[in-house]
Amino acid sequence: MDRLTLYGSFTSSSSYKAMLYLALAGLPFSFRTAFSFRTVNLKTGVQKTPEYLAVNRWGVVPSLRHRGLTILQSNVILDYLARETGHFEGRTEQQRWQAREWLSWEADHITYVAKVRHSARFRASHPETIAEYRPRAEAALAVVDKIVQSQPFLVGDYCTIADIGCWGRMVFMAEGGFELANWSHLEAWAGRLKAMPGFALPYELIPSKDREFDPV
Amino acid sequence: MDRLTLYGSFTSSSSYKAMLYLALAGLPFSFRTAFSFRTVNLKTGVQKTPEYLAVNRWGVVPSLRHRGLTILQSNVILDYLARETGHFEGRTEQQRWQAREWLSWEADHITYVAKVRHSARFRASHPETIAEYRPRAEAALAVVDKIVQSQPFLVGDYCTIADIGCWGRMVFMAEGGFELANWSHLEAWAGRLKAMPGFALPYELIPSKDREFDPV
After folding, report:
1. What is the pLDDT of residue A1?
2. CATH number among 1.20.1050.10, 3.40.50.2000, 3.40.50.720, 3.40.50.80, domain A93-194
């Protein structure tokens, strides 16, 4: 397998999504995979330098390089990795499309969890804006909570990129004032993810220093 | 080819994206395609009825049914149709992923154009929220404007699902107070799309009555 390089930041839930996938799939630790993580220091604006813009036209994290391809946008990266490696894909054609639907849905809805957290942690939005975002975030969490009440994972009995993408985007929810314990089925689902080999939280998984990291 | 059924609404830019794809690909008018459009009347809440929730778990439009599969979320529908029919796919592997990246990006950014329009047309957001959304919408339009200054379409020389998805989401921009003429390269790009055989605007393309529509 060709070298995988992931560009990201330890404060970015989007970067975590891709990194968590790789960790759960065991790819960075496989003897066949040469893996590099490269921190893009968002505080100092590395994402807007010409060097990084040559990787990512929008100047955001994460970006993946593999087999001479550059793949951008966290959900596209998850789809690419699932198709490419077979890990965490749906088992039937319908389930593979369902997993992609959940990723698209999370970008429309769980994004509000990330936006409220972003406002609390980095740059405050107007209180009236947060007053619109917060109930949308809570509604999105309630949708996930309800689905995983009757089935272990979002598309059925096993973990797919849908779970990794949705969990990854909501991982910093406590920083936005959302308590996992308020959604008991969601909390149990997160527990199932946390019990999987390779699982880690962002600050354990992603190096925080602005240097190249290579676990191989 | 098996029957294609699209569920949507003529006021929904997401429905338009799927419908425009089909029109540009000529699929509803192909002798091989049995096509139905079914209006989901959003005003009377048809999208939240048990019958429609059995099609679309989130109670939104559009939904596509084809070959016994149900495909939700407009950008997933575009990806599905491109993979399935070959129309408006990228030509190289990198371009196919790039087209999907643009769809993911439009859901993050051109969505603000749709949100401002939704507030103006259907249900007003707080003015402070719109004050945050409008510059983000304008920034997204500027990104597209800049890209199509140096190339005819978003991933290169030819139209892909990236163009159909980005244009489709911004089609009602005038209702949000965004004048196409303010972005001259974007306007020229829209002109290239409008010159393609099969192109139509939403109100010409999607039946407005709450009845089943079958052009075949």
Report:
1. 57
2. 1.20.1050.10
Asked whether the beta carbons of residue A100 and residue B108 sit closer than 8 angstroms, the reply is no
* Residues A107, B107: C-beta atoms closer than 8 Å: yes
Pairs of residues, one from chain A and one from chain B, whose beta carbons lie less than 8 Å apart: 73
ipTM above 0.90, yes or no: yes
Radius of gyration over every alpha carbon of chain A, rounded to an integer in angstroms = 17
Beta bridge partners of residue B37, listed in sequence order: B6, B213
B94 Cβ under 8 Å from any chain A Cβ: yes
Optimal mutation site among B65, B129, B161, interface A, most CBs of chain A within 10 A: B129
- The reply to whether residue A70 touches residue B94, judged by beta carbons under 8 angstroms, is yes
β-strand B4-8 against B35-39: which pairing, if any? Answer: parallel
CA distance A103 to chain B (A): 9
The Cβ of residue A134 has, within 10 Å, a number of other Cβ atoms equal to 18
pLDDT tens, residue by residue, B171-204: 999 999 999 999 999 999 999 999 999 999 998 8
**pTM summary value:** 0.94
Segments of chain B with pLDDT less than 70: 1, 31, 208-216
∠ CA B115-B206-B24 to the nearest 5 degrees?
95
- Percent pLDDT > 70 in chain B is 95
